[in-house]
Amino acid sequence: VSFISLPYITNSHPATMKFSSSILSAALLVSASCSSAAAFSTHQRTVSSSSIMRTSSSSTTFLASTTEKSTECSTTTTTITPEFAGARDQAITTLKAQLPPEALSTLEQPLTHFISEYFQSLSDSAAAGTKNPDGSEVTPQQAVKNMLTTLSYGLKYGLGKDKFIFENVRHMALRGADFNDTSVIDSRYEEDSLKEKLGPDVTTDFYAAGCEFFRPSMDLEHSVVLGQDNLKQAREQIDAGENVIFL
């Protein structure tokens, strides 16, 4: 119902998002930004995309539909720096070498597109002077590390024998097990099947990994949250005993 504008990010290819959705919780934010002919424009854009559906035993009525606000998406094309272009090519070469043969025909093009947009994004972000939370600069090496780590999760848990299956629509993020503090351990990590599936990633915080992946692409200073009126309307309907479904 409320989305954050990501001025450096455009929509990624659907197949790419399907590939990485089990890994990057933060990838949901990508759908909040506008589609554009240019990848990762540095112009600010905000979109609130929400629908509230009232349901009853006899009817279904849409009360609110997609609303676009603020500035339109820019189609300005930016130039990637040679350093980020070289890093991008390195990541694409690694991807092609690691993709299973049966996946090349369907995933090579969308993932190459996704990688190209990501490196363009971080190139634009670095040029704009964006800093990491620790104050360091956004670098091509950081982009390579982020992308290859993400791809390794996608290959393992999205395509491999350890494919992760979401068994509940209300999935709680796997934040990693801290076996040194048994008072706060997620009970799911006590299951041998999960520990075996995750292996060395059993202590990995996948939610944080997703946030760290996309954070350099976000212009947080100029981002806004829209659609809060829909939350108020939904709360009023729930209080009235109605059902509310967010699409």
Question: How does this model look, in words?
Answer:
There is one protein chain. The chain has 247 residues and is mainly α. Helix content is 40%, strand content 8%. The protein has 7 helices and 5 strands, in the order H-E-E-E-E-H-H-H-H-H-H-E. It has helices at residues 14-20, 82-98, 101-127, 140-159, 192-198, 206-214, 228-239; strands at residues 46-48, 52-55, 60-64, 67-69, 243-246. The strands form 2 sheets. A 3-stranded antiparallel β-sheet has the order 3-2-5, covered by helices on one side. Strands 1-4 form a two-stranded antiparallel sheet. Strand 2 and strand 3 form a beta hairpin. Helix 2 runs antiparallel to helix 3 (101-127) and helix 2 (82-98) packs parallel to helix 4 (140-159). The longest helix is centred in the middle third of the chain and has 27 residues, at 101-127. The termini are close together. Mean pLDDT is 75; it is low at 1-75.
Search tags:
disordered N terminus; single chain; mainly alpha; two-stranded antiparallel ribbon; 247 residues
Entry summary:
The protein has 247 residues and is mainly α. Helix content is 40%, strand content 8%.
Which term fits the overall shape?
globular
Strand element count: 5
Give the helix level as a range of percent.
Answer: 40-55%
Question: Widest sheet: strand order?
Answer: 3-2-5
The overall average pLDDT, rounded, is 75
Order of helices and strands: HEEEEHHHHHHE
Percent of residues in β-strands: 5-15%
Number of helices: 7
- Radius of gyration (Å): 20 Å
Given helix and strand content, the structural type is mainly alpha
Mind summarizing the main beta sheet?
Answer: 3 strands, antiparallel
